Amino acid sequence: MIYVFAVLAVLCGAATTAVAETPIERGSYLVNAVMACDGCHTPRGPGGLIMERRFSGGSIVWDGPAYTVQGSNITPDRDTGIGAWSDDDLKRLLISGVRPNGVSVAPQMPYGFYRILTPGDLDAIAAYLKTAKPVSNEMPPPVYKAAAYPVPLPGAETSIGDSVPQDQVKRGFYLATLAHCMECHSRKPDGTQDFKNWWGKGGHEMKGPFGSVVVANISSNKEKGVGAWTDPELKRALTEGISRDGRVLKLPMARQRYFSKMTEQDLDAIVAWVRTIPPIE
Q1: What is the pTM of this model?
Q2: Given this model, what pLDDT does residue 103 score?
Q3: Does residue 24 contact residue 92 with C-beta atoms inside 8 Å?
C-alpha cells in the first residue's frame, strides 16, 4: 500500500510539472487573454489591429483637460520602445505609473487596476513583454496639462497577495480588475469614475473609431443590468461578443479575441464575481 501511494505521488508530481506554466507563458496568458493591451498599444488600420506592428504604439488619441496621450511603444526596441528599461522599470510603471525618468503617466494607462497583481504575475507580464518583436516607431510625446491620478479601486489598492486566489469570487474580482472592467462600467455620463455609488451602472458614452457606444449596466439588476442573464449568456458575451438579445457588441467591449482564450475556470470565476455586483438602476 505504501508503494502504491508513493507511485501515485510521483505520478501526480510529474503531471503537475507537465502542466506548470513558465513565467513567460503566464505573462502571455494575462496579456493575451485578460488584459487586452492591444487596445491601446497596437496600431489600427481599416481592417483592425495591425498585428505585425504589435505593441508599437496605438492609433487612438485621448485628448482631455488633463492630458493628450496615445498608447506608447512597448516593444523591446531600445530607441523608441522599452528595450532599454530594466525589469524593475517596467514593473514600476505597471503598478505605480511612473516612467524610469520619474515622470508619471496619465491614468489612461490603467496602472491603478494593476496594483492588485501578485508578485509572480507582475514578474510574468514583464518577462513576456520583453519577448515581443522590437518595432522602431517613434510615438508623439504625451502632453500633460494638469495633475491626474487614478481613482483608487476598493479592494485593489495593493497586491492581492502572493498567489492568485482560489476562492471563485475573489479570483473573478482579481481577473476582472486586470481586465479593468470597471474602468468603463463604473464611469458616469460626465466621464468621472465612481467606484462606490456607480459600481457597474454604466451609462457613459464612449466615442472612437468604433463609433459611439453607451457603456452597459453589468450590475445584478434584472431589468437594467445582467441579473436575468444566464451564465452561458454572460460567457457568450465575453467569448463571442454577442449580447443576450443577439446583438454584436461593439468596441471597446468586443474583446472576444482575448476573453475566448481564457480558461473555463477563469471564465466561471468572472461570471461568479459579476453575480455579486449589487443591483443598481
Answers
A1: 0.91
A2: 94
A3: no
